[in-house]
Amino acid sequence: MAKKFIFIAASLLLVILNTEALAQRTYNTQRVKIGFYNTQNLFDTINQPMVRDGAYTPQGQKQWNSAKYNEKLGRLAHVIDQIDCDIVGLCEVENYGVVKDLTRITSNKNFSVEHYESTDFRGIDQALIYDTTKFRIMASELVPTATHKPKRGILRVQMQSKINGSKIVFYVAHLPSKLGGEKAAKSRDTIINQFSSLHKVEMQRIQGDRAKRGEKKGETVIILGDMNNDPIEVQGMVNLATPLEKMGVGTYLYRRVWSMLDQALVCEGSNVSELSTKRPDNIKINGKAVRASDHFPIYFYLDL
Fold it and tell me: How confident is residue 180, by pLDDT bands cut at 50, 70 and 90?
């Protein structure tokens, strides 16, 4: 009888320990939804010195006034609400102010903005918006591109989860357009090679930090951007856009041909879902269906 009691007690203890271990693993895992969106010329109405934004002013070619600006913001916010991400990389934004205006009207009122003013002659930058209830910024900077004219740079943001302490490093980029011909193609190749160098440096830093602090898990490195190119290859990373491109899926339509320009790359071995694109619902203005941007957004899930 005593042996039977001991066996039952041991079995119950084992079940409790396994349940607690499972609960701990569940608690320590955080699923994050990450997106990227080219907002297509999100300009305010103010003529910025030293920037070719004159078309986007009330007196300019597009007669860009407050009504048109607010309409554009509303359409973009509608798309961001539809993809419903915790973190979204953005490109083709003029400045911090336009991104702040955008986040004010999204459903997620916890969004904060990370942005640096670039020297791009068109005045368009990259930005990252993130949910402040889930993440904190550890460091950020605008990394100059390795081309002879750095211009837009690459936005680097290092953040930490407030839920389980995991860390992510984001690079948000917008590579030169194909309309720039051979010169732009060389610049794109240079920046793609730079991505490999940046990733290598990050991996060396992460390994050093793990050894120094005795951490069991390193950081996840993610590159988001409009690459203006077929899915790019970066050593040590997986391009989540490649399978979609092979299926003929794209985020940008030009002359009736879809291109997978908007891409997301993650470290090899990362626990991620497949990449998805979102065809946003058109919004009707004066009975006419309009889109927020000429690009579709992308998104995926990451388990930290």
Answer: confident
